[in-house]
Structure formats: C-alpha cells, structure tokens
Amino acid sequence: MELDLTVELRKIRLSSPVMPAAGTFGFGEEYAELYDLSCLGALVTKTFTLRPRSGNPQPRVWETPCGLLNSIGLENPGVDVFVAEIFPRLLRFGVPVVVSVYGESAEEFGEIARRIPKEAKALELNLSCPNVPGKPSVLSAEEIFSRVAAAREAWPGELWAKISPEGDHLASAKAAEEAGADAIVATNTFRGMAIDLERRAPVFSNILAGLSGPAIKPLCLRIVYELCKALRIPVIGCGGITTGQDALEFIFAGAHAVQVGTANFFDPLAIPRILKEMKEWLGARRVKSLAEVRGCARKR
Ligand SMILES: Cc1cc2nc3c(=O)[nH]c(=O)nc-3n(C[C@H](O)[C@H](O)[C@H](O)COP(=O)(O)O)c2cc1C
Q1: 139 within domain boundaries
Q2: What is the pLDDT of residues 95-149, one digit of tens each?
C-alpha cells in the first residue's frame, strides 16, 4: 500500500505535510524552475500588510553558527497589489495558497482578512514578527485573542495563528484557539542580535533581529510538544527543520504538518528532499500513514 501523507486539518485537507514557511519562498517562481511544486502541502506567502511597506534598511540578514538572523521588516507591496497581481500568479501553480497577513491592530487584521480572496486555502495570521520597528513581537494573550477574533469574523475559511516562541506560548496559543483559530503555527523566530565590532554598533538598524535555522530546532520542538499536549486544534511545526528526520520529530511530537524556512536558502531543493527522506524513513519501517505515528513520542 502507498504511504499516505495526507493531512486532515479542521476545514481543509493537504496532500503533503511539508510546506514553505512564510517569507522564505518568494512567490515560488524560482523554486518552480527547480522542482514540481505539487509536492508542497501548500504555498505559504510572505506576510502582506494593509498598506505597502518598504521594510528595514540593509543589512537585513546575518549568518550565525547554525542559524540566520533576519530583519526584513515585512517589506511588501500591500494587500491590494497582492490580490490584484500576485495571487492570480500563485494560483497558476495549481498548489493550495496560504496567505500570511499582519496587522498593527485587531481592526487592521479584520480589514486585511476581508480583502483576501476566498480561493485562498487558508489565512495565516502573523502574530509574532520581531522585525517591525516600534512594535512588540510578543503580544499579550488579550491582544492575540482580539486580533484572531477580528480575523475570524472576516474570514470564514481555515484560519491559522502563527505565534512567537517567546513569552507565554501556551497562553498565546490558547487565546488564539479560544478566538477561533483552526490551527497554530509554532513558531516564528527568536529575537537575537549581532554586533559589528568595527562600527562598535549593532549590525541591524532595528537592533534586534529574528533567529531561525537549525539553532532553534530543539527549542521549537519543545514548544510544539507542549502545545500538542495542551490544545484541541492542530499544530503546524516550524523552526530549524532541515531534514526528513527533523520533520518526523515534529510529527512524532504531535504536529499535523511542518513548515520549512531557512533550509530553503541553503538548499533550494530542501522541501522535496525532506519529503523523500520522510518517505524513506517511514517506508523502511512499514508505516502506512502519518496518522499512525503522529504524537507517538507523547504516548510513552
Ligand atoms: C528571511 C526570512 C524572512 C521571513 N519572513 C517572514 C514573514 O514574512 N512572515 C512570517 O510569518 N515569518 C517570516 N519568517 C519566519 C519563518 O517563516 C519561520 O517562522 C522561521 O524562520 C523559523 O523557521 P526556520 O528555522 O525553518 O527558518 C521569515 C524568516 C526568514 C529567515
């Protein structure tokens, strides 16, 4: 029997458990030249905001041992350009599109959610960006509740809430669940920084930047493990996933699906390779479906 990798979420089904993490896959065009994007569970867009944003000054990325610091600052042309020009291009790939959005208030989240075409497979709320000058990346549970509730009212389809790994992640995720989120994406980046010795100053204009990549995998895995125990809604794991084995660790911890971010930069074929490695590992052990092993590490 074929290995069944389909994922049943609250309102949707994905044909694959692996998808790119927001902001790390462009609009898929470069990757579509390298491999067939139908292997993606969904194509998750970069985060869009109500109005265009030019993002933060350079430098915006900085390598660290086993990780990457970024301070992109949500550069994007605004939701209306996304809807009119970019979304139709993404649909051409024939892959479900998950749209990531960010608002500075509950009202803004509601407004932007109303403008997203219903053909989008899901809406992912970025509740955790560490790179917006003057804005906290760690929201209180009350702020999360009101933002998710506003989007929930405006968007009837599948709704994902992407949380920060910092602060009280359990309270954040529970607030999103109570406000009507269908899944939690855990997690965004950790706040870090780097200092340029010659300039005797922080590397990034915003001082802080988001740390991603293999360095954060054990931290995110722990958070996913805890969330899967505490929540009723599915969790989508994200943070440092680089190999099929990494992805399976998140599934064994209880995640329904995974997102791959930084690995796309150092290996553009990361997603198809991760899928192949997952299939090989599971196939060699005669596992028939992901459902058979999901959360198995919690049952001991
Ligand atoms: C260059 C870069 C840009 C990112 N842009 C976004 C974004 O627009 N929206 C978002 O929610 N997360 C964004 N992220 C965070 C990733 O989606 C992901 O949550 C994080 O990098 C952890 O996963 P990873 O270790 O696999 O990269 C970005 C990360 C990087 C490295």
Answers
A1: yes
A2: 999 999 999 999 999 999 999 999 999 999 999 877 788 887 789 999 999 999 9
Does 99 reside within a domain? Answer: yes
Computed over every residue of the chain, the mean pLDDT equals 96
- Per the structure, the complete domain to which residue 293 belongs is given by 7-55+74-189+215-298
Instruction: Establish whether 39 is a catalytic residue.
Output: no
DSSP state of 214: G
Q: Ligand 1: does its nearest atom lie under 6 Å from the Cβ of 270?
A: no
The residue annotated as part of the active site, out of 39, 129, 220, 296, is: 129
DSSP string, 90-135: HHTTTS-EEEEE--SSHHHHHHHHHHS-TTSSEEEEE---TTSTTS
CA–CA gap between residue 113 and residue 42 (Å, rounded): 18
List, in sequence order, every beta strand (DSSP E) within 27-96: 43-48, 61-64, 67-70
Question: How far, in Å, from the CA of 189 to the mean position of ligand 1?
Answer: 7
Residue 203 maps to a domain: no
Structure tokens, 257:
């699906």
State how many domains the chain has.
1
pLDDT band at 300 (very low <50, low <70, confident <90, very high): low
Residue 158 lies in a domain: yes
List 69's β-bridge partners, or say none. 62, 211
CA of 285 to the centre of ligand 1 (A): 32
Report the CATH number that the domain containing residue 264 is assigned in CATH. Answer: 3.20.20.70
* Euclidean distance between CA atoms 16 and 61, whole angstroms: 30
- pTM of the predicted structure, to 2 decimals: 0.98
Cα angle: 252, vertex 256, 261; to 5 degrees: 95
